[in-house]
Amino acid sequence: MTLSTGKIRWGVLGYAKIARELVIPAIRRAAHSEFVALASRDAAKLAESAVRFTGGHRTYVGYEELLRDAEVDAVYIPLPNSQHAEWTIRAMEHGKHVLCEKPMALDAAECRRMIDAAAKNGVKLMEAFMYRYTDRTRKVVETLRSGVLGEVKFVQASFRFLLANPASIKLQPALGGGALYDVGCYPVNFCGLVADTVAGAEPGTARPESVKVECVRSGGSGAGGDGVDLLFSALLKYPCGLVAALHCGFNAHKRIGAEIVGTEGVLEIADTFFDPAGALVLTRGEERTEIAVAESDRYRAEVEDFAAAILEGRAPAFGLAETLRNAEVLDRLFAASRG
Question: Is residue 299 annotated as part of the catalytic site, yes or no?
Answer without folding.
Answer: no
